[in-house]
């Protein structure tokens, strides 16, 4: 199965780790507090949510610098003073947007989650047959494994998920949103013949265990990791094939 990288992920990787693509950044209210149904509640923790273009650009710069520091040293080693200095802002300005280091990490996770949701929605949008569903989801699995391998920031954030309640809550939130997208695609393949709640619960297991699979796969030697991902694809393929049958 070919490994096709979604163009939105390429934008993320080309213009700075986890930076929103132009499509998402241009959405009205992308940086505003939209509640738990959009980005996570981390936005509410910001002392000053960016609403003006200049403020959004400043936040973008701060997050880009944070990504660079995490890539080089890991999230445990970054310091707020260093982020402020390299971003060219005063420490007071930094604290206006991010009250602590954890809020920066959560903001980066927000952006990854937003891009993840957009990419999955795009990949499943035109699915209309069981074979197309299996192929599309298989490509998504390959894509995200390669992204986890290529992006140290994503690895750093999600390997620390179990130790951070906010990240755990965010993972559950995005897993549910992604599961709903998958369930809708399955029902479309089935011509709406099926119970959404039952299918969505099975899809939630697929999505949530997928995140755990990626964390495990990047924590072990590369050959073993690829076999873990391949095994996950086979298991998920059987489950999706069963759900897609009418």
The arrangement of helices and strands along the chain is: HHHHHHHHHHHH
Which whole number gives the mean pLDDT? 81
Low-pLDDT runs: 1-40
* Domain module tally: 1
Structural class: mainly alpha
CATH class: Mainly Alpha
| Terminal Cα span | 25 Å
Task: Summarize the structure in words.
This protein is 72% helix and 0% strand. With 246 residues, the protein is mainly α. It has one domain (7-244): Tetracycline Repressor, domain 2. Mean pLDDT is 81; it is low at 1-40.
State the gist of this model.
The chain has 246 residues and is mainly α. Helix content is 72%, strand content 0%.
Summarize this structure as a short list of keywords or feature phrases:
mainly alpha, Tetracycline Repressor, domain 2, elongated, single chain, 246 residues
Topology:
Elements: H1 7-14, H2 22-25, H3 42-45, H4 53-73, H5 80-87, H6 91-97, H7 101-124, H8 130-150, H9 152-159, H10 165-189, H11 196-219, H12 222-244
